[in-house]
Amino acid sequence: MTDEQTTTNPITSTTNTNQDEELIQRKQTETQLQNIQNEIRDTQPLTSELLPLSSLTASFQREEEEEKTSSSSFKEESQTLESKYKYLRKVRGDGNCYYRAFLYAVCENVLLLLGSSKDGGEVELNRLIELAKNSIDLVTQRGYDRSTIEMFYEELVDLFTSLSSSSSSNDTSSQQQQQQLTQSTLHTTLNEENAMSDYCTWYLRLLTACHLKSDPDRFIHFLDVEDCPGGAIGMDVPTFCSREVEPMGRECSMVQVLALAEVMGVRVVIEYMDGRGGGGGGLVCHEFGPEDAKMKIFLLYRPGHYDILYK
Asked: If 114 and its partner were Cys, which of 39, 121, 143, 171 is the partner (CB 3.0–4.6 Å)?
C-alpha cells in the first residue's frame, strides 16, 4: 500500500467536518423552532374569547412591576386605547395573525349586521359569497393549479355561505338551517386546529398574492428591506409573494395588509401600539382598503402581531 493511499486529504476532511457541524446546527435550530411552535399551539387558542381592553393595560402594569421590561410607553398607549375601544380578542401569534384576525372579524361583523336592525347585512354577505365563488378564476388566471387549491377555495365559500341560511345559495333545507353559524358556533369552528380556519387563512394568503401580482408596477414600490428577512432590494413581486405571502407562518407587512383589504373590499382600521405613542404622543392609526366599503373592521398592531379590537 502506497503513502498516497493511506494519507487522509486534510481539505476533504475539514469540509466534511464543517458540513456535519452545519447539519447538526440546522437540526438543533429546527428542533428549537418546533418546540416554540408546539408551545404556542398548546398555550394560545387560534382566537381567544372576548376580553376587556383593561386586561391589556393590566398586563403591561404587571410587567412593569415585575421589571421584566420597560413597558411604560406601552402602558400609556394601552390607556389611550381604552378611551376608544372596550374589548379585544387575541389571535395566536404564529405568523398568520393578520389573516386569521381579518377572517374572524369579517365573519363576526357579518353576523352582527344580520342580527341588527341596520340594512345591508344580507347584501354584504351575498357580496362576500359571490366574491369567494368568483375568486377561483382569479387564482387560476395567476397560474395556480385549480386541483391543488380547490379544497381551500371551497372552505372559504362554505364558511361565508354558512353564516346565513338565507344566503344566495337559496338552500332552505333543514340541514342547511342546522349548519347556519351563530357567534358561538363561529368561534368554535374557527378555533379547530388544522381545519377551516387554517384552510381559509391560507386561501386569503393566495388572494393577497394574486392581488399583488395583478398590479406589480404599483406594489413593487411598497416593498422595502424590512418586508423580507433577506432584504427586498431587487426582489420582484412574484418572488416576494412566493417567499413572504404564500407560505403559512410568514408575518404580514403593510403591503399584504393593503392588498387583502382591497381584494376583499373591506375597510381595515389599524391602531399601532409600538411604544412610540407614550408621553402624550397618542396612537398612530392607519386605514386600508376602499373608503366606501360597507364593512369596517378594527385591529390592534403590536410589533409583529395583530389582535381584534371592539368599540
From this structure: 121
Count other Cβ atoms within 10 Å, centred on residue 168.
Answer: 15
Question: DSSP string spanning 123-135?
Answer: HHHHHHHHHHHHH
Name residue, grid cell 386600508: 288
* Residue-by-residue DSSP string for 279-299: TTT--EEEEES-TT-S-EEEE
pLDDT, tens digit, 9 for 90 and up, residues 109-142: 999 999 886 778 899 999 999 999 999 999 999 9
Q: Nearest 5°: phi and psi at 193?
A: -70, 140
Return the ∠ at Cα 292 (arms to 286 and 295), rounded to 5°.
75
Do the strands 267-272 and 296-302 form a parallel or antiparallel pair, or are they unpaired? parallel
Amino acid at site 289: G
CB contact at 8 A, 82 and 54: yes
pTM: 0.81
**Bridge-partner residues for 309, per DSSP?**
88
| Catalytic annotation, residues | 94, 97, 305
How many whole angstroms separate alpha carbon 6 and alpha carbon 3? 5
